[in-house]
Design goal:
The chain contains 2 helices and 19 strands. By secondary structure, the protein is mainly β. The chain is globular and about 60 Å long.
Length: 282
Amino acid sequence: MGNPRVLLYFTLFFIMYLLWVQWQVEYGPKPEPVTQNKVLSTGDEKIQAGDIPQPAASANAEKTVAAIEKEPVVNPGKRIKVVTDVLEVEIDTRGGDIRRVVLLDYAVHADKPEEKLVLITDQPFNYQIAQSGLVSVNKGTAPTHNAVYRSEKDVYRLAEGEDSIEVPLYWTSEDGVTVKKVLRFKRDDYAVDVNYFITASDKPWSGSDYMQVIRSRPDESDKNTFIHTYTGGVIYNEEIKYEKYDFDDIAEKDLNTQLKDGWLAMIDHYFLVAWIPETGKD
């Protein structure tokens, strides 16, 4: 039988190491986030970096989804607050962006249950937002994520006895195209359904929708050095399967792809933000 004292010493040193790692997570120095805003300019019109959706060739064009690592650029409209049994969400009327999501059933630390996990935020620290919009063959007849919608209310709450709640946003072009963008939230569900209802006054509307996640490089100061978890982009469909794109890859070239019957996500440790287009449609 081996020397039990050696095993005891090894166990003691291992426990001390784990305690040191946890101390670093809780009380170690945090680097100050550095943020710069960048704007692309085309003539007299300034467009945010990564914000130029391409017109679809037809209404049957494949849905475009993109995960982009960019410095935060905040250009807010009016905020709409949505509260369900599991989510607290802030939607911007500019684009209908989802700019803040709090997971009400998850705490940041076990000893601080009142401090809930913020999954999406447009604050510079760990900036991440979800955007979607429309592009059309005819310029000016579709609201991109830079378009400003109208809203009937500033606050929506899922009431007792209700299974879902809808947040409608309205936009109208100069030539009479009307778009109703509806975000639907369901009880005990973290998925948000996004649907468009389009009415054209004189001729059929032709275009497609697109989706993107804007994400800054995450802060790694509180990362456990003993347990590695992946943070970065992932895309999936029947052809690509499960393919990862880390932030070094995205820094060289934006992750911008067309998917059919697939999905795109930004994975952050044990959580993810994903766009999942409706299956069976291009």
